[in-house]
Amino acid sequence: MTDTLQAVENAIQKHIASHFEGALVDSWVIVCHAQNIEEHDLSNYRLLTPETQPFHVDAGLMDVGERIIAGAWDDWNPDDDD
Questions:
Q1: Which residue segment(s) compose the domain that 32 sits in?
Q2: Which residues, at least 6 apart from 31, have a Cβ–Cβ distance to it below 8 Å?
Q3: Residues 6+ apart with CB under 8 A from 1
Q4: What's the pLDDT at 82?
């Protein structure tokens, strides 16, 4: 893991621990948009995750994030997957 990625992970861990005492972050995903300051028509999106985190974990976290944003989390029941 690069020093920068380790710093991101440490910051996430510290932030979550400050809000949820005793919590341990075991997986995470960051999605960001980057705009080129000099050329305003150039932009891109980036996905940042721990280097050894499997893609299916990334996809699952992104699904949960989408459900939270959509307000559908309260209606979701994992037992309904039959």
A1: 3-74
A2: 45, 46, 47, 48, 62
A3: 9, 50, 51
A4: 44
Asked if residue 80 is part of any domain, the answer here is no
Copy the structure tokens of residue 20: 């949820």
Domain count along the chain:
1
Let me know how many helices (H) and strands (E) the chain has, helices first: 2, 2
**Where does 4-62 show beta strands of DSSP type E?**
30-35, 43-48
Is 58 within the bounds of a domain? yes
pLDDT tens across 29-63, in order?
999 998 888 877 788 999 999 989 999 999 999 99
pTM of the predicted protein model: 0.72
